[in-house]
Amino acid sequence: MSAQAQLQVPAATPARRRRGVNLEKWGWIFMRASGVVLVVLIFGHLFVNLMLGEGIHALDFAFVAGKFANPFWQWWDVLMLWLALIHGANGMRTVVNDYVTHPGVRKALVWALGLAAALLIVLGTLVVFTFDPCNGVLEDGSMWEACLAIGN
To answer: Is residue 96 within 8 Å of residue 113, measured between CB atoms?
Structure first.
Protein backbone atom coordinates (compact mmCIF):
# COMPACT_ATOMS: atom_id res chain seq x y z
CA MET A 1 0.00 0.00 0.00
CA SER A 2 1.38 3.38 -0.93
CA ALA A 3 1.91 6.23 1.51
CA GLN A 4 -0.88 8.11 -0.25
CA ALA A 5 -3.38 5.27 0.36
CA GLN A 6 -2.44 5.01 4.02
CA LEU A 7 -3.29 8.65 4.56
CA GLN A 8 -6.78 8.24 3.11
CA VAL A 9 -7.88 5.49 5.50
CA PRO A 10 -10.66 6.99 7.60
CA ALA A 11 -10.10 7.06 11.34
CA ALA A 12 -12.41 5.04 13.55
CA THR A 13 -15.57 6.96 14.32
CA PRO A 14 -15.81 8.11 17.93
CA ALA A 15 -18.34 6.41 20.20
CA ARG A 16 -21.66 8.18 20.28
CA ARG A 17 -22.67 9.84 23.51
CA ARG A 18 -26.13 9.17 24.75
CA ARG A 19 -28.20 12.29 25.17
CA GLY A 20 -30.19 13.03 28.32
CA VAL A 21 -29.62 12.65 32.02
CA ASN A 22 -26.92 10.23 33.13
CA LEU A 23 -28.67 8.55 36.09
CA GLU A 24 -25.66 6.45 37.02
CA LYS A 25 -23.49 9.55 37.32
CA TRP A 26 -26.07 11.33 39.49
CA GLY A 27 -26.52 8.18 41.59
CA TRP A 28 -22.75 8.10 42.15
CA ILE A 29 -22.69 11.79 43.12
CA PHE A 30 -25.71 11.31 45.42
CA MET A 31 -24.01 8.41 47.22
CA ARG A 32 -20.95 10.55 48.01
CA ALA A 33 -22.90 13.64 49.05
CA SER A 34 -25.51 11.76 51.08
CA GLY A 35 -22.76 9.75 52.77
CA VAL A 36 -21.09 12.93 54.02
CA VAL A 37 -24.39 14.44 55.19
CA LEU A 38 -25.39 11.14 56.85
CA VAL A 39 -22.14 11.04 58.83
CA VAL A 40 -22.93 14.50 60.24
CA LEU A 41 -26.57 13.63 60.95
CA ILE A 42 -25.82 10.28 62.57
CA PHE A 43 -22.98 11.50 64.77
CA GLY A 44 -25.05 14.55 65.76
CA HIS A 45 -27.93 12.23 66.63
CA LEU A 46 -25.68 9.94 68.67
CA PHE A 47 -23.97 12.84 70.45
CA VAL A 48 -27.24 14.48 71.51
CA ASN A 49 -28.86 11.20 72.55
CA LEU A 50 -25.92 9.54 74.27
CA MET A 51 -23.50 12.23 75.46
CA LEU A 52 -25.53 15.29 76.50
CA GLY A 53 -27.49 15.46 79.72
CA GLU A 54 -27.72 12.17 81.57
CA GLY A 55 -26.50 10.25 78.54
CA ILE A 56 -27.94 6.85 77.79
CA HIS A 57 -29.76 6.75 81.14
CA ALA A 58 -32.06 9.56 79.95
CA LEU A 59 -33.31 7.61 76.92
CA ASP A 60 -36.91 6.67 77.51
CA PHE A 61 -40.34 7.31 76.05
CA ALA A 62 -40.47 10.83 77.51
CA PHE A 63 -37.10 11.70 75.93
CA VAL A 64 -38.32 10.61 72.49
CA ALA A 65 -41.64 12.41 72.98
CA GLY A 66 -39.77 15.57 73.92
CA LYS A 67 -37.54 15.37 70.86
CA PHE A 68 -40.47 14.73 68.53
CA ALA A 69 -42.28 17.76 69.98
CA ASN A 70 -39.53 19.99 68.57
CA PRO A 71 -39.73 20.74 64.81
CA PHE A 72 -35.93 20.98 64.55
CA TRP A 73 -35.49 17.39 65.76
CA GLN A 74 -38.41 16.21 63.66
CA TRP A 75 -36.75 17.52 60.50
CA TRP A 76 -33.32 16.27 61.64
CA ASP A 77 -34.68 12.72 62.08
CA VAL A 78 -36.76 12.82 58.89
CA LEU A 79 -33.77 14.00 56.84
CA MET A 80 -31.67 11.24 58.39
CA LEU A 81 -34.40 8.68 57.63
CA TRP A 82 -34.85 9.80 54.02
CA LEU A 83 -31.16 9.97 53.23
CA ALA A 84 -30.40 6.63 54.91
CA LEU A 85 -33.20 4.81 53.09
CA ILE A 86 -32.46 6.34 49.68
CA HIS A 87 -28.71 5.83 50.17
CA GLY A 88 -29.24 2.20 51.17
CA ALA A 89 -31.72 1.47 48.38
CA ASN A 90 -29.39 3.03 45.81
CA GLY A 91 -26.52 0.92 47.11
CA MET A 92 -28.63 -2.24 46.91
CA ARG A 93 -29.72 -1.25 43.39
CA THR A 94 -26.06 -1.09 42.42
CA VAL A 95 -25.44 -4.56 43.88
CA VAL A 96 -28.47 -5.95 42.03
CA ASN A 97 -27.33 -4.38 38.76
CA ASP A 98 -23.83 -5.81 39.23
CA TYR A 99 -24.74 -9.38 40.15
CA VAL A 100 -28.20 -10.23 38.80
CA THR A 101 -27.86 -11.26 35.17
CA HIS A 102 -31.47 -12.03 34.21
CA PRO A 103 -33.12 -8.78 33.06
CA GLY A 104 -36.58 -9.71 34.37
CA VAL A 105 -35.31 -10.65 37.82
CA ARG A 106 -33.13 -7.54 37.93
CA LYS A 107 -36.08 -5.32 37.07
CA ALA A 108 -38.31 -7.00 39.66
CA LEU A 109 -35.68 -6.63 42.39
CA VAL A 110 -35.00 -2.97 41.59
CA TRP A 111 -38.74 -2.26 41.68
CA ALA A 112 -39.07 -4.13 44.99
CA LEU A 113 -36.22 -2.08 46.45
CA GLY A 114 -37.81 1.15 45.30
CA LEU A 115 -41.23 0.23 46.64
CA ALA A 116 -39.83 -0.91 49.99
CA ALA A 117 -37.81 2.30 50.38
CA ALA A 118 -40.80 4.45 49.40
CA LEU A 119 -43.11 2.65 51.83
CA LEU A 120 -40.62 2.97 54.70
CA ILE A 121 -40.06 6.65 53.91
CA VAL A 122 -43.80 7.37 53.97
CA LEU A 123 -44.40 5.38 57.16
CA GLY A 124 -41.36 6.82 58.95
CA THR A 125 -42.29 10.37 58.00
CA LEU A 126 -45.84 9.84 59.24
CA VAL A 127 -44.56 8.48 62.56
CA VAL A 128 -42.26 11.45 63.13
CA PHE A 129 -44.76 14.17 62.23
CA THR A 130 -47.90 12.62 63.73
CA PHE A 131 -46.30 11.27 66.93
CA ASP A 132 -48.62 11.83 69.90
CA PRO A 133 -47.29 10.56 73.23
CA CYS A 134 -50.77 10.71 74.74
CA ASN A 135 -52.48 8.59 72.10
CA GLY A 136 -53.98 5.59 73.87
CA VAL A 137 -53.11 6.70 77.41
CA LEU A 138 -55.72 5.51 79.86
CA GLU A 139 -56.86 7.28 83.05
CA ASP A 140 -55.19 4.68 85.23
CA GLY A 141 -51.90 4.88 83.27
CA SER A 142 -48.73 6.47 84.57
CA MET A 143 -48.75 9.10 81.79
CA TRP A 144 -52.29 10.39 82.43
CA GLU A 145 -51.28 13.41 84.57
CA ALA A 146 -48.55 14.39 82.13
CA CYS A 147 -50.98 14.28 79.21
CA LEU A 148 -53.51 16.38 81.13
CA ALA A 149 -50.77 18.90 81.93
CA ILE A 150 -49.82 19.40 78.27
CA GLY A 151 -53.46 19.57 77.17
CA ASN A 152 -53.82 16.38 75.11
So the answer is: yes
pLDDT digits (tens, 9 = 90+) for 65-104: 888 889 999 999 999 999 999 999 999 999 999 999 999 9
Mean pLDDT lowest among 45-59, 79-93, 129-143: 129-143
What are the domain boundaries of the chain? 22-150
CATH fold of the domain at 22-150: 3 helical TM bundles of succinate and fumarate reductases (1.20.1300)
The three-state secondary structure class of 13 is coil
Cβ-count burial 111-145 (b if 16+ within 10 Å, e if not): eebeeebeebbeebeeebeeeebeeebeeeeebee
Find all residues with CB under 8 Å of 41, minimum gap 6, and list them: 76, 79, 80, 83
pTM value? 0.76
